[in-house]
Structures are given as structure tokens and as C-alpha cells.
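Ticket #4471: structure output looks truncated?

Reporter: J.K.
Steps to reproduce: submitted the chain below (294 residues) through the standard prediction queue, then opened the result file.
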Amino acid sequence: VVGRNGMGKTTLCNAITGLVSARGSVKLAGREILGMSPNMITELGIGYVPQGRRVWPSLTVDEHLRLAAKSARQGAWTVERIYSLFPRLADRRRNGGAELSGGEQQMLAIGRALLFNPRVLVMDEPTEGLAPVIVEQVTATLKQLAHTTSEATGIAVLLIEQNIGVAVDAADRVAVMVNGRIAREMSARELAADTELQQRLLGVHAAAEEAKAEARVVIEDEAPSHVLTVRRAHGDAIPRSPPTQTVRSFTRWNAMQPEVPLHDRAVRNSLAEAKAPESASATDPTSNARSARV
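Returned output as attached by the reporter:
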């Protein structure tokens, strides 16, 4: 089931699993299950992988799986089989839920649901918020589940997905939900080939359309460009910032040195003027006589 945000996809999952009240009819193998409690629906064979993974942060991977195995109905799926399906979980079995990456948490949520040996596995946007590499791994897992299940252990998967690429790659048939209703239902190949329908119902653009848009942008970028110069109205000269000067200390020991910077000249001149009267009094005999009489 694919659709835009707010179309009612998660509400559909919650109604099937008994988490919200609903009107109408929900049947599993011909048996009406609408109105039953969630635990009774789970015992009848509906597993749920909720949106956002919902793992316990304080429990380890192994504790998650052992706890689910104790309360689940017996069947082909066991903890050891989950570890063989997801070898990464076997390596991280002693790590807590909060210590796992988004992809590892998603693997744990899928494995936890499989331990109930469901007849129908409901998955609400399992690729949400995952890196592209992890999305490919989750998609490969969905394909593996579809190909490895036999008639005795067969599992029907109801996949709720916004990623149209994952939906058409993993599913056989696709239903498009619009405002809480199924607007169209078709094969995955038919939806993948109908780009106009994807854009009209889902608001997505095919890769070919995006390539055409990029080509148009490239052609527009090749047009000749013009460089305009803006000058001030009061003159052509553009004011420049004053040159930077290095400030150095000035003392009486380096005042008469020629390498003293020019910006120290004012200080040097004032010092020279202060020394001038002293040299004049030293050469004037009258001033010396006056000094002797005093």
C-alpha cells in the first residue's frame, strides 16, 4: 500500500492489528477479526512491525528475541533462525536496543515479529529514516522472506511504504491509498511503468523525468552570461580599506635608530625636542654662571 502523508496508511495498520477501533470488516482466512483485542489478533497469526521500530532501549538483542519467543506461538521461526537471517543481530546480541543503529533496530523489529510465526506480516514503512545502503538490505530481506517461505510456513506481507522504488521492487501487487480509500490497485510492474499515474496519485517524478529536467537546466546554463559592474554615483573610485601597519614598541634606546618605523617618527621628534634645551644649556657659559651663583 503506497500513498502520500496523511492518507491513512498507518491507521489501516492499527485497525488491522486491533490497536484502534474501526468500522467495516477485517477478515483473516475468512474469519472476522475486527473488534478483537490486539493479543487475540496476534495469536490468530498477524504480526506487526510498527513504524519507528519500537524496540526497548534497555533490553539486549537476545533478550528481545527470547522474550518474544516465550509468548509467541510455536512454529518454524526460532531465535536461531532469526540469527541466521540477520547475522548482524547475532554479532550484536549482547548490545542494548539504544546501542543499535537504525538498520539494526529494523532487523530486530522484523525478527521479533517473525518469532510469532504469523500468517500475515504487517510492516509499516520499514525503510523510513534509513540510509540508502540499509534500505537495499531491508528490501533484499523482504525478497528473501517472499522466496524462502513455503506453503507450510507461508507468510503474506502487507507492506506500507512511501518509497515507490521499494514498493514496486518488493511487492507483487500495489494499492494506492488516497484520503483513506484505495483509489487504484494494480500489479507492481504496471505502476512502475506508468509514470503519469505515479505523478498524479503519489506526486512523485520518475527518474526519466528528472533526467529531462536536469538536461533542461544544463542547456539553460550554457546560455551566454553578462557581467555587470555597479559603481557609486559620487565617483568611479572604489574606497579601499587602509593598509595594515605593524605596531612595534618604541623606547629611548631605539629612538635614533634608522630602522625605526615611520609611524614612530612623531614620538621620536617629540623626544628630540625635549633633549634640545638640555644641550643648549650645556654650551651657554652664562647659564653655567647663573647656575653656579644659585
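Triage note (M.O.): checked the attachment and the full C-alpha cell line is present. The longest strand covers residues 181-187.
Status: closed, working as intended.
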